[in-house]
Amino acid sequence: MAQGGNLSVVLHSKGDLRLENRPVPEPGPKEVLLQMHSVGICGSDVHYWQHGRIGDFVLTKPMVLGHEAAGRVVKVGAEVEHLKAGDRVAIEPGVPRDMDEFFKNGRYNLSPTIFFCATPPDDGNLCRYYTHSANFCYKLPDNVTFEEGALIEPLSVGIHACRRAGVTLGSSVLICGAGPIGLVCLVVAKAMGASQVVITDLSSERLAMAKELGADFQLTVARENTPQQLAERVTEMLGAQPHITIECTGVESCIQTAIYATRSGGVVVLVGMGSEMASVPLINAAVREVDIRGVFRYCNTWPMAIAMLASGKVNVKPLVTHRFPLEQAVQAFETTRQGLGVKVMLKCDQNDQKP
Questions:
Q1: What is the pLDDT of residues 33-62, one digit of tens each?
Q2: Cβ(251)–Cβ(272) under 8 Å?
Q3: What confidence tens digit (pLDDT) does each residue in 198-214 have?
């Protein structure tokens, strides 16, 4: 089984990314052993590589990267009933460890003790063989590819953000940022019934992808534009202020734009993360009853995402612009770091490099 061993992409310390062989793990009673197939590279993976930390999550020992993943079950733990060898699955990377108040509430993403792939000190799944809690592996229908299965992770951020925003039939939505997360917010907002979506970015290349994915308006931002100017441009495009703004950059000026642009009584959802402190027009939001809501990953999204993909309600296939075999992981990471394309996918199965 362990052809070529368990090749893994391991971050040893800031800037030190290595490919190394690790032992093939044994699944625990409630786990499954997976042969990984497709794993996407996330901005957070690159950030850990470049900086060694994100906020309070600090790399202190070597860690396997990767958390956008799908693979095939090769072995099941003794107590696993719902999966069998050969099943194709998408992996939800966040697994709660404790049945605390957040777990009981159904908001398990907020549990302080949650396990999460490739968030220090927890290992991710950018490797050939990986064990994971069977309850957080979801069977893929035959018409959903492994790559689509891996893209459920970023897609889940879009689902959770749109749920938090209250996107519904007839909503008008502004999305700030057209990277992978802005784009998944776009396709989910449209699928949930948003009538008009405006999306902004510095990159006309990314806005072209947004147009292909169904954006109604694209607004190319220049660094010299003020937040108020941009807010006015959005209103001109839509004919009215958007009900909802989903902020996917984390840039201070974009958060300011989000608040100014949103209609009174509307909602701003903050998805992008920048510096810890941000200077924003909070009183403007307060006096206009604009609700500001945060997003931390997602919860209870995989079943909905699989249903959306299987039914054709959302199409994420165009997001994958680059593919590399696992052996070329460093090159793949470099491609992502340079901001080339949209989503870079690593192919972990030497005998099956298909999507």
A1: 999 999 999 999 999 999 999 999 999 999
A2: yes
A3: 999 999 999 999 999 99
> Residue 188 to residues 132, 205, 231: CA-CA distances in angstroms?
27, 21, 23
Which residue, 124, 129, 136, 117, is CA-closest to 31? 136
* Those residues with Cβ within 8 angstroms of residue 257's Cβ, 6 or more apart along the chain or in another chain: 176, 200, 227, 230, 231
The encoded tokens of residue 63 equal 């860690």
Q: For the chain, first and last CA: distance in Å?
A: 22
* Cis-peptide into 29, omega within 30 deg: no
pLDDT digits (tens, 9 = 90+) for 107-132: 999 999 999 999 999 999 999 999 99
Structure tokens at 298: 């997602």
> Residue 4's pLDDT is what?
55
Rounded to two decimals, what is the model's pTM?
0.97
pLDDT single digits (tens) 294-327: 999 999 999 999 999 999 999 999 999 999 999 9
Place of tokens 């992502």: 336
Is 260 within 8 Å of 228 (Cβ atoms)? yes
Residue 3 has pLDDT above 60, yes or no: no
**CA-to-CA distance for 13 and 309, rounded, in angstroms?**
37
